[in-house]
Design brief:
Shape of chain A: globular
CATH class of the largest domain in chain C: Alpha Beta
Structural class of chain C: alpha+beta
Structural class of chain A: alpha+beta
Strand order of the largest sheet of chain A: 3-5-1-11-8-9-10
Helix content of chain A: 25-40%
Number of helices of chain C: 13
CATH architecture of one domain in chain A: 2-Layer Sandwich
CATH architecture of the largest domain in chain C: 2-Layer Sandwich
Number of strands of chain C: 12
Radius of gyration of chain A: 27 Å
CATH class of one domain in chain A: Alpha Beta
Strand order of the largest sheet of chain C: 4-5-8-6-7
Number of domains of chain C: 3
Strand content of chain C: 15-25%
Shape of chain C: globular
Distance between the termini of chain C: 44 Å
Number of strands of chain A: 31
Chains: A alpha+beta (751), B alpha+beta (175), C alpha+beta (337)
Largest sheet of chain A: 7 strands, mixed
Largest interface: A-B, 65 and 60 residues
Distance between the termini of chain A: 56 Å
Number of helices of chain A: 18
Oligomer: heterotrimer
CATH superfamily of one domain in chain A: Aldehyde oxidase/xanthine dehydrogenase, molybdopterin binding domain
Strand content of chain A: 25-35%
């Protein structure tokens, strides 16, 4: 089982609310993002996007564009330099099975918005102007982009995506038992296509350093992924490429995989032997990955008292024609609820679209919306309180994983504390029973669940003779607060102030870490930093013992503690010595260590690990006009130890806000004749604005977990999961209308 | 005619303008199609002002022109000849009784204290918009602040903290 | 964005003259819509005539009403004390639109001249009769959530996106224009066009004409007005349906009724018969419903925007109820009264 460290200093900073260490850089405009770095003679690339969804390019006329003074070159499939041949070379660390998209590869059009040319010019405005002069002709074929029309072609993906659990084999006989159940409920649910739309558009700046060396600033959630991709695709020596990304203007999954602007920037930089920056437009943020529209059917058979007897959850999701993107959609139903007869299926159908991708709590946002709405329907049908129904069917083990127990599961505390804070007991269960002026008031709740994961991660720690500590690795802080929590962990590990610690991230010259996603960064990078610091601490301890008249003579490492810049005997703090004095005495300029953290195999063999939440939502609905307002949310979270309540709360707030968007606003609307998303801008693709967001209260319930020495489980995704269901359930409570198709827009309330 | 540029196709189609940016007067030659946003970011290396959509749909590019908040992405620089521009880099210099000991404008300090940002990309626009809102003086209640800040999208969802930060500064000034 | 030359005019005459020399010229003031469209390559002017230095920023008393200079910004107008006091309908309509930043830049004249937000108009990858006459209208039978239900043609189902114009239509403002042929006044109802077979023309302005002012008539309807806007989020979104309602009451009886709808047609939509129907009727729900039924009877929706018919019907009733009650809808309080 996991070791706990006896001499990690005191928890002075860890667990306390701290402002972001990157705050000053972000509020003064000094924080630079990928498209803001520059180099000598930087060129600017503008992408020309294709206009058809399926077919071939029959001609590209670049003459007018190339005639514009300042245009250096127009790269197309006809004149692009050669890159790697095999699919394998394009498969990044998180690629699903298939043949990854290659920009400007050939004349084939795979989806609408596909990049078909890159105009490279001396300045941005010239590139943009010339890009509009490129004329592309096509032989168009009829695209298939309507998921509802391709259900017959659905298939079970033959190759499973690494790290994504396929649905387990069924157990019991869900169909037969459903048929004979006292209470039966079978409904279909749909979630619309969503696009991540981080505020920073995707951008890459490739600086040509000479002698075959490149420094690359890439908008990616993990520079190591882009680093390996560039080396593999362009046949580069990894030592000659450095990928950096100190700040990322939001990712939400859109930056997990290297996107095509990185490929194009490097392609142009190598072709022209000049530094190149490529920044996508906001419209082009619809030209790659997205959360897939998904059609689901949930069948629940229960006794009259609400005990589940049969559970069936079937999902159909689209993928591209070139990759089988997969996410966990249906398993959540059986993770959350105990049932003896279960069947779960997940099928894909190919469309002429780009490969969908992970978007904040991928699959869980989708699947949990369906099961948690269905459970609310069952509560209504059986007359049970929604919480009571959930407790009745509460799972203590993970039936989708050999029935292993959960490492920790404080979901019951979430129900209790969330309900208490929300005032749930005052709810009149009858729909349409609560009213305020013209508005109907609805209270709904739902459960959220997300995996708690760790990934193989390295980190280093360097203590210098001036008492300053640097820690870091290659992962990115995508807005989650990673800089801050790692600083807290490092400071506590060696008993330093946070000001004495500098955390460096997003640089492939630093020890390797995986992409920042899956809510695994705090556990993974946090543990690695802690171990690296501990290693430095041991080195210090040895040096301290060697000092003349060492106060630590005859003391074991397990008995010392680091605090206030000193190493001292834990139960006799007077017996100690300042770290800087240890180093001065030993004549060392710096002490450094690199450590790695990995999932605990013993723990994982015994337990399954998830974070949980209970979300309570209040909506006010002007029924006559269809307007829904979310006036109150309480989100109670069980996610192990909270390293920094301030940044942790923000993670949940952000998840809830995106969940409100998913519930009420977000939908990329496809013209299925053109195979094109038509509302490809932030004016017509609605994400929540300030006026949409009212009171959100976040509760972290106590939960002890031992999957890693920090006891953390991750917070990046759990805030969004279940939020849409809680809101949909509140809308039902307010109006009596059950809306199973997200987003819940005015027209659906009116219908 | 006050000003006529040369031919649109001439490479030297530049017009001389004068802007005071963050207190510093600058004489600049700009093309008619250069937006204030691109001028700041691409020519003057003031990358604090962000390009989120380039179409007035997100507010990340918000700056103060003569104390009024506008979307710099939809503003042609040539049309602001003679104006005073304040970007996030110049906010501290705006503070009434000088920046605090931390060298920040009170709204910058409040954003840090209230954790009113995550990724930081919309933040410069939120900050300039907040100062513009306070200059306007129309928004007082939380509801009014929410509405008046709705032109600044924060995809990380820091809205409630942003309102807290603005309220905090407004109450501080009222004291 | 294409290349263009730039002229900064000092007087209206100069502006008109600068325009006359370049058939593909555009006047620019706030630029909030024109620069937007230029970046999408939808607008490709050969010349921009900058009119921001023209002396048209004022808001002045005139004939018992107000004259809004064409360069008064949306914010100037919405927060003008006289406008707030006498024309709350206009102030609320303006504040229901766009964002504070955009309202600070956008001009009165430009608001009238803003172009549709139709997805297809904005996307040069698709045909559009408004952008490229004769190329077709894929919005018909396509993604039509935001499109028109009234006054459409087989060539175009776009809507006019303004909120301000809906209020101006209800107030029966008058647009003052200047051009090569001199000055003239255009009643608001005649300013914007229906698409017909020339959807490329949004207004009845002659080539080279410039809006110099918008006159608000003396009749202001006091507090018996409302601007009600329904949209896909609570702020910073265009109207699915909006209603500007203004009533003159004699006790409980309607003496005059004005009703204009936004988000449903190529221009602010009024229905004279419905307004006439209300006159002399008691200011109560049944009367409002009858008027609403009359208005929506003419709707010709698409599959994607059929909901707007019922939404418009209900919004009209609510808007008139609010106007009758003298409770202008507050833009800040998202609860609809």
């Amino acid at each position: 089982m996991t070791q706990t460290f006896s001499s990690t200093g005191s928890d002075r900073f860890v667990g306390s609310a701290r402002s972001r260490v990157d705050g000053p850089a972000k509020v003064t405009g000094l924080a630079r993002y990928a498209g803001e770095f520059t180099g000598p003679d930087l060129l600017h690339g503008t992408v020309v996007s294709g206009t058809i969804a399926r077919g071939r390019i029959t001609g590209i006329d670049t003459e007018a564009a190339e005639a514009v003074p300042g245009v250096i070159k127009v790269l197309t499939h006809e004149n692009r330099p050669r890159t790697a041949w095999l699919d394998y070379n394009y498969q990044d660390a998180v690629a699903p099975p298939g043949s990854p998209f290659r920009a400007l590869y050939d004349d084939k059009i795979h989806y609408s918005g596909q990049p078909v040319a890159l105009v490279v010019a001396e300045d941005f405005e010239t590139a943009r102007h010339a890009a509009a002069l490129v004329r592309v002709s096509y032989a168009a074929e009829t695209p298939a982009t309507d998921l509802t029309a391709v259900g017959d072609l659905a298939y079970d993906p033959p190759k499973k995506r690494s790290g994504i659990k396929p649905p387990p084999k069924p157990w019991g006989d869900a169909d037969a038992v459903f048929d004979t159940s006292a209470v039966k409920l079978r409904e279909t649910y749909r979630i619309a296509t969503e696009h991540h739309n981080p505020m920073e558009p995707h951008a890459s700046t490739v600086i040509v350093e000479g002698e075959g060396r490149y420094t690359v600033y890439d908008k990616v959630q993990g520079v190591s992924n882009s680093h390996a991709y560039l080396a593999s695709v362009f046949g580069l020596d990894k030592d000659k490429v450095r990928v950096m990304n100190p700040y990322l203007g939001g990712g939400f999954g859109s930056g997990l995989r290297p996107q095509y602007q990185l490929f194009l920037a490097m392609l142009a930089a190598r072709d022209l032997d000049r530094s190149v920056r490529v920044v996508l437009t906001r419209d082009q943020m619809w030209s790659f990955t997205h959360r897939p529209e998904t059609l689901q059917t949930v069948s629940l058979g229960a006794d009259a008292d609400g005990t589940l007897q049969a559970l069936r959850h079937d999902a159909l999701a689209p993928t591209s024609r070139f990759e089988d993107y997969q996410e966990v959609v249906v398993n959540w139903s059986a993770v959350l609820y105990r049932c003896d007869n279960v069947a779960l299926t997940y099928k894909l159908a190919q469309l002429d679209v780009f490969t969908p991708g992970d978007m904040r709590a991928p699959g869980a946002v989708t699947g949990v919306f369906a099961i948690e709405t269905a459970m609310d329907e069952l509560a209504h049908a059986t007359g049970l309180d929604p919480i009571e129904l959930r407790l009745k069917n509460y799972s203590e083990r993970d039936a989708t994983a050999e029935d292993k127990p959960f490492g920790s599961k404080a979901l019951k505390s979430c129900f209790t504390q969330g309900a208490e804070r929300f005032g749930w007991s005052r709810r009149n269960p009858e729909p349409r029973s609560m009213r305020e002026g013209r508005e109907l008031v609805g209270w709904g709740m739902a459960t959220g669940v997300w995996e708690s994961m760790m990934q193989q991660t390295s980190a280093h720690a360097i203590l210098t003779a001036d008492g300053k500590l640097e820690v870091g690795n290659s992962t990115g802080d995508i807005g989650t607060g990673t800089y801050t929590i790692l600083t807290q962990i490092a400071a506590d590990s060696l008993g330093l102030t946070m000001e004495a610690v500098t955390t460096k991230l997003g640089d492939t010259d630093l020890p390797e870490a995986p992409v920042a996603g899956g809510s695994w960064t705090a556990a993974s990078s946090g543990t690695a930093v802690m171990k690296a610091c501990r290693d430095v601490g041991e080195q210090l301890f040895k040096l301290a013992r060697q000092m003349d008249d060492s106060p630590l003579a005859n003391v074991d490492f397990e008995r010392v503690a680091f605090a206030e810049g000193r190493i001292a005997v834990a139960d006799d703090p007077a017996r100690g010595v300042a770290l800087v004095d240890v180093m001065r005495a030993a004549g060392v300029e710096k002490l450094e260590a690199t450590a790695s953290a990995a999932p605990d195999k013993d723990f994982n063999a015994t337990y399954e690990a998830y974070t949980h939440s209970a979300i309570f939502a209040e909506v006010k609905v002007d029924e006559e006009l269809g307007q829904v307002r979310v006036t109150r949310i309480v989100s109670a979270i069980a996610a192990g130890k909270v390293l920094n309540p301030k940044t942790a709360r923000s993670q949940i707030l952000g998840g809830v806000v995106m969940g409100i968007g998913s519930a009420l606003e977000e939908e990329s609307m496809m013209d299925t004749r053109l195979g094109r998303f038509m509302n490809h801008n932030l004016s017509e693709y609605h994400v929540p604005v300030n006026a949409d967001i009212h009171d959100i209260e976040v509760i972290f319930v106590d939960e002890e977990d031992k999957a890693n020495p920090l006891g953390v489980k991750g917070l990046g995704e759990i805030g969004i999961v279940g939020t849409a269901a809680a809101i949909a359930n509140a809308v039902h409570h307010a109006t009596g209308k059950r809306i199973r198709d997200l987003p819940i827009t005015i027209d659906k309330i009116l219908a | 005619m006050l000003i006529e540029s040369g031919s649109p196709v001439a490479a030297d189609n530049r017009i001389g303008i004068s802007l005071t940016i963050n207190g510093q007067q600058r004489e600049l030659q700009v093309a008619p199609w250069t937006t204030l946003l691109d001028l700041l970011r691409e020519r003057l290396d003031l990358t604090g002002t962000k390009k989120g959509c380039d179409h007035g749909q997100c507010g990340a590019c918000t700056v103060l022109v003569n104390g009024t908040r506008v979307n710099s992405c939809l503003t042609l620089a040539v049309m602001k000849d003679g104006a005073e521009i304040t970007t996030v880099e110049g906010l501290a210099g705006l503070a009434n009784d000088g920046a605090g000991s931390n060298g920040l404008h009170p709204i910058q300090a409040a954003f840090i204290e209230h954790d009113a940002f995550q990724c930081g990309y919309c933040t410069p626009g939120q900050l300039c918009s907040s100062v513009g809102l306070m200059n306007e003086g129309h928004a007082k209640s939380r509801d009014e602040i929410r509405e008046a800040m709705s032109g600044n999208i924060c995809r990380c969802g820091a809205y409630t903290n942003i309102v807290d930060a603005i309220e905090d500064v407004m109450q501080g000034e009222a004291r | 964005m294409n290349r263009f030359d730039y002229v900064r005019a000092g007087t209206v005459a100069e502006a008109v003259q600068a325009f006359a020399g370049a058939p593909d010229a555009r006047f620019i003031a706030g630029g909030t819509n024109l620069v937007d469209l230029m970046k999408y390559d939808v607008e490709r002017p050969g010349r921009l005539v900058d009119i921001t230095r023209l002396p048209l920023t004022g808001i002045e008393e005139r004939d018992g009403g107000l004259r809004l200079g064409a360069l008064a910004t949306n914010a100037d107008v919405a927060y003008d004390a006289r406008v707030r006091e006498r024309y709350p309908l206009l102030a609320n309509a303006i504040l229901a639109g766009a964002s504070a930043q955009l309202r600070n830049a956008a001009s009165t004249g430009g608001n009238l001249l803003q172009r549709t937000r139709c997805y297809y108009f904005y996307d040069t990858a698709t045909p559009c009769n408004k952008r490229e006459p004769g190329s077709g209208c894929p919005a018909i039978g396509g993604v039509s959530r935001i499109h028109a239900i009234f006054g459409t043609s087989e060539h175009c189902i776009a809507t006019h996106p303004s909120d301000m114009c809906v209020a101006l239509a209800a107030l029966e403002a008058v647009v003052q224009v200047a051009g090569p042929a001199g000055e003239r006044s255009i009643p608001f109802a005649e300013f914007h066009r229906l698409p017909g077979d020339a959807p490329e023309r949004d207004t009845n302005l002659a080539p080279g004409e410039i809006v110099v002012a918008v006159d608000l008539p003396a009749r202001d309807f006091g507090q018996n007005v409302t601007y009600l806007k329904l949209r896909d989020r609570l702020s910073y979104a265009f109207a699915l349906v909006s209603v500007a309602a203004a009533l003159e009451l004699d006790g409980g009886t309607i003496r005059t009724a004005r009703l204009a709808l936004g988000g449903v047609a190529h221009k602010p939509w009024r229905n004279a018969r419905a307004e006439a129907l209300l006159v002399g009727k008691p200011a109560e729900r049944a009367s409002f419903q009858a008027a609403a039924d009359l208005v929506v009877a003419e709707a010709k929706p698409q599959a994607g925007n059929a909901f707007k018919v019922e939404l418009a019907r209900r919004a009209i009733v609510r808007g008139l109820e609010q106007a009758a009650a003298g409770t202008p809808q507050s833009i800040t309080d998202k609860r609809i009264q």
